[in-house]
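Re: beginner question about structure tokens

> Can someone show what the tokenized structure looks like for a real chain? I only ever see the sequence side.

Sure, here's an example I had lying around. Input first:
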Amino acid sequence: MEKDKQTLKRTMTSRHIMMMALGGAIGAGLFKGSSTAIDVAGPSVIIAYLIGGIILLFIMQGLAEMAVRNSNARTFRDLVQSVLGNYAAYFLDWIYWKMWVLNIAAEAVVAAIFLQYWLPDCPIWALALGISLLVTVVNLLSVKIFAETEYWLALIKIAVIVIFIILGLLLLFFTFGNHSAVGLSNLTEHGGFFPHGPSGLITAMLVVIYSYGGTEIIGVTLAETKNPEKVVPKAVRSTLTRIVAFYLLPFFIIVSLIPWNQVNSVPESPFVMVFKMVGVPGADHIMNAVILLAIISSMNSGLYGSSRILYTQAMDGRVPKMFSKLSKKKVPVYAILMCTSFLYVGVLISLFAGSQTFTYLMGSLGYTVLFIWLIIGFAHLKSRKNQTEMPSYYVKWFPYTTWFAILSLIAILIGVILTTSIVITCITAAIYLLITAAYVWKGRRHQ
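And the corresponding structure tokens:
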């Protein structure tokens, strides 16, 4: 009875998981990070997102195959530990947890920046605090309520991105009223398609990888998913096509409609700028509201992912047992509250750093997504050794797709180290060393 009481319920369906992966990936990276990516890469940002989308596809296919083969897995750790060993599983668990808790802190600040569009006199830290409290309450409700909330929030932002794409294409190619078709001249004017050369493209990859990061949250939902061996591959297939479409097309429209060197000169999102161009009364306010909902939705996914990792760590006795305690609604309350505390750390940082908080946190998060994808890639490579029978879902072009993803990620990592602020690189390295030191110390203590 006690064991049953402490088990997560499998109440999440295919539509919940698909929307959650979209919710995790279509957030601040798209709506706020888009300005940064365009600023460093210019129109070539389209190629950066295409490369990132292909890498993501290959990594996610490997993740889906491992999930199908190991239907009893609860999170990434279970998929990786049996293949790469204890250290890789421990490292992945903690950098993934770190990624999400820092991400929700970063996104709380971004949400506050968009709220300031209407409340210019209200400080960022106060707005971030209000949003943090709202997300905490939603996550403390039942998993089904959380999943439904996330589903509808994700659906709203997807609907608006579709409207954005349709309106953007109309502005680009059609003349109506006082508006003349813009065409594609902005792609090659203002310094050409590669205004900053290859280095601009490489620098943008950090934002690109950060933006796509969150899709792999599918790997954390395994314990609360009905029939994961069927649902996960389906969710991977449908989610990836949507993510690539929802990134590539909007970026193509933005850099075609607005000269790339003007995008970062205004505080508002490029999405709001395009809606203003349409000339619909209040369009910029509607878009701002949707972006706000999108970021809250992404925070929702992040708090879910980080709390479930902490819960499974507690179930396995790796962190205090209190984090495995569930409420009557089968929600890991203490794990959620622990992860939520980082939201308020973000609020404190924003008290001093203001709107720059997002830029500082995004750099470290980009590194973390790179390492998470690399570990999943290597785990998939090794998981095929000594396999005589293929599961119902498997990667058909193995090992070429996986090797392409791994080598691309290593190349991006080297490029990012050479082009990113040394402060961000050193802080990230220090966090990774701390996680490694904790693993070594824990191993010695148990000898």
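Each token stands for a local structural state, so reading them left to right follows the chain. Residues 83 and 382 are 6 Å apart (CA to CA).
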